[in-house]
Design the sequence.
């Protein structure tokens, strides 16, 4: 059962007022080492986190709090990125440095498939139609996995630094960002290069599509976030409030809000329609993963926090922001 969608707030002043009374942060211990990736299931009932400790933690959201449900063990290397199935709320994919992709079933608490890949994997993207998982490794090789057979059906070796990968909403275009500040858009499944966008002067680190299919955003080493029109391939506006390389992006369920994070001690929440700041989340360390809830104005994120008192060991915590201030 999907969580009922929060009613989108149209007015910028109303959005700001909403977050002025919904800016509480809750912190949860999830791992014994740094959290690399967080993501929500499509129905919004579960949150997963992948960590350097090789484990995948599954939390259940009950109104305004998370409770840990299960810990998936099996990877023998760091879990660098995870991605849920876009319409199946129990299926989760993870990319690991152990040269494998794993599919987990949160209903049965079992690993449903292990797919061997050629290198240490650093990013993963499940096509919105559910048919294909793309995984990229440290050697800039992208492998495409057919989810009916759980076999690699095609591999594409790129001769430039591939940083992050994403699908468009109709799953027929595949996007990747590179070290030269460009976004390459390829047709799928033919993998013919359709266009190259010069998006940033610096390394283009991340790319994210919004859930409504109107926009995609890119984040760069130049500390800028660019918002693009999917159909026109035109840059609509640039967000320039961060001062460090942009590491991670996430759109709210209605496409209205864009969260961007870096080594800055804030996560910026910007309005996609005007580019203006709606809110900011205070953090005390670099943030490498953020994820808006698929039907509520809630953000899950993880930072490179250190455990007190010596602050030498990485804390494996994840956080939830956007909770009502008076919640118990």
Sequence:
């Amino acid at each position: 059962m999907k969580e009922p969608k929060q009613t989108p707030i149209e007015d910028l002043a109303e959005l700001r007022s909403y977050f002025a009374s919904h800016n509480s942060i809750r912190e949860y211990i999830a791992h014994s080492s740094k959290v690399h990736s967080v993501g929500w299931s499509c129905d919004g009932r579960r949150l997963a986190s992948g960590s350097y400790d090789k484990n995948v933690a599954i939390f259940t959201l009950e109104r305004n709090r998370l409770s840990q449900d299960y810990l998936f063990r099996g990877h023998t290397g760091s879990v660098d990125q995870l991605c849920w199935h876009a319409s199946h709320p129990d299926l989760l994919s993870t990319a690991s440095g152990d040269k494998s992709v794993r599919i987990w079933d949160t209903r049965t608490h079992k690993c449903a498939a292990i797919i061997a890949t050629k290198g240490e994997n650093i990013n993963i993207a499940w096509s919105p139609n559910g048919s294909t998982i793309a995984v990229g490794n440290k050697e800039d090789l992208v492998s495409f996995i057919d989810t009916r057979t759980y076999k690699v059906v095609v591999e594409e070796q790129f001769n430039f630094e591939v940083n992050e990968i994403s699908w468009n909403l109709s799953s027929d275009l595949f996007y990747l960002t590179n070290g030269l500040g460009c976004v390459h858009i390829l047709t799928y499944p033919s993998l013919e290069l359709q266009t190259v966008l010069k998006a940033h002067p610096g390394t283009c680190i991340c790319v994210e599509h919004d859930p409504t299919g109107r926009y995609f955003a890119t984040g760069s080493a130049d500390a800028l976030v660019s918002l693009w029109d999917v159909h026109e391939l035109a840059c609509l506006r640039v967000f320039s409030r961060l001062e460090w390389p942009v590491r991670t992006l996430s759109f709210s369920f209605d496409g209205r809000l864009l969260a961007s994070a870096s080594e800055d001690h804030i996560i910026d929440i910007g309005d996609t329609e005007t580019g203006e700041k709606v809110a900011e989340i205070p953090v005390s360390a670099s943030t490498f993963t953020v994820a808006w809830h698929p039907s509520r104005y809630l953000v899950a994120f993880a930072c490179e926090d250190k455990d007190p008192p010596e602050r030498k060991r990485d804390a494996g915590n994840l956080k939830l922001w956007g909770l009502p201030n008076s919640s118990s």
